[in-house]
Write a structure and sequence with these properties.
Oligomer: single chain
CATH class of the largest domain: Mainly Alpha
Shape: globular
Main location: membrane
Keywords: Cell membrane, Membrane, Transmembrane, Transmembrane helix
Subcellular location: Cell membrane
Protein name: MFS transporter
Largest sheet: none
Number of strands: 0
Pfam families: MFS_1
Number of helices: 18
Helix content: over 70%
Distance between the termini: 17 Å
Amino acid sequence: MADVTSALQTERSAAKPAHKDGTVLRWLAAYTLSVLGDSIYFMALGWAANQIAGPAEVGLIVASGAVPRALLMLGGGVIADRLGPRRVVIGSDTVRFLVIAAAAAAIALTPGHVWLLITVALIFGAVDALFMPAVGALPPRISTPDQLVRIQGMRALAVRGGNTMGPPLAGFAMGISGPEAAFALASSLFGISLLLLLTVHMKPLQGTGDAEDAPRGTSARHDLVEGLVFIRRHKLIGPLVLAAALSELGFAGPLNIGLVFLTTERNWGAGGMGWIVAGFGIGAAASALLLTVLGRLPKAGYFLISTTLVTSACVAAFPAAPALGFTVALAALAGLAGGIAGGLAQALIQAATDHAYLGRVTAVTSLTALGLAPLTYPAFGALVSFGGVATAFAAGGILSAIGMIVCIASPTIRKAELA
């Protein structure tokens, strides 16, 4: 045991900081370009749909990609673990590049058809279900556990940057030559991302040889069940995944559709909503920068619990703020605390996950945010109708805080550290 501990300490001390590690930086650049390409693709898809279809069909086209993404996400995690995340991320990025390039050509050469856009959206959503667990499972395979917090901060910065730069770039491209130009730009970004991913190589697993080439005698269904059992039985991952899911469900309604009701009730208009969203975004960006600079936080478990509770309190207090400026300040604090909590949660989960289960665990955490959170929107809307905006926001804050009761009840989470 002493030899193993000594070896781990030697590996960590010899490892480069993530922001100086060429492999990590290439992964980050590829991930950033992928997020940017996603943002451009979704805007181009909606614009192309609006040119050839009515409002109902536009909604159907844009939403159709979410169905295979949610349904196939867990299967994507199984495939990432069976074949290895690097192979899956390269293969899926190749398909994304080819599909969007073909879509650009088809839109440029034909008048456009609803069935074509739905087909593109369905294929892209299905491939996303493979890409997301695989790309999310790579950080622990290209760096060491002590760098995971910094990597999560860098990743959050990439997401913020990609989502901020994507719409204006898409608009610029469509202003030049319509949706086909935006699709072509997105395809080019996916292609560059693919080239960068080809240069990213994973660290070998100690004592296992090439685990990706090891034959599996089990079915995909068995592997999926095995992954879910691993999550449920793990003393840190199980409670933390449950807590994160409850928090995500609590935050989703207030922060996505709740702001519309709040600003309407206060007569702050679209401009007021924009300021609140901007405040949250600034806080989230600050949290990402903080995690990137610091690299780690002491007593990560306690820090996770406290920052999530701060976020819950801020969300619940939104309707009580006496003026728009106070609400914007609360949103900035919620973005800062929530960003720190999210980064710590992801880093703790990845550090504790056996590499053989990384794809499946990443798929479960991704599905929570993408698949389950939107299900709270009808319930939140009903709460607003029957109890008012303040009641609905309070319910969201309480639900997210309940997730932290799960963490407080777990000694493993309370004492969790990222060495």
